[in-house]
Amino acid sequence: MLGTPKFLGLRDHTKAVIEKLGSVQWFRAVGMSVSEDVRIVSSWEIALAEFKQGGWEDALHQASNRVSSAAFARDRDRHQLWNHAVDAIKPILQPLVYKQTLGLLDQGIFDYETQQLIYGDLLHVCEEAEYSDLVEPGLGLVTRS
Hints:
Layout: H1 12-23, H2 44-51, H3 54-74, H4 76-79, H5 82-106, H6 112-130
């Protein structure tokens, strides 16, 4: 390696994933059966308790570590740009999460912690998108590019 590679911006695939996140109405199907793979709960309280369980957060951290390690193994120069990519994603994603969750915050359904958990989940989705040309996405939320 000859110095640090230059970050040239997010990949088009990552931009498309963020655009898709912004184009849909989140939480529009709460309480509705949308798929056999989705478990329906009877209240926001139950849904939030499930969401905040440590198991999901642990799985997310493991998935993030897997993507980072695999990206490092496949393209060290590109892996060096990880933090630059995350820094490029954050100012786009933060207002999107805020916009999509504001009504639920105002209604007292969500709290700030929940909003930040959602933000962390989606940040990971965007990280997977950014490196999906090198690493098979782990959560199955992003297609490989």
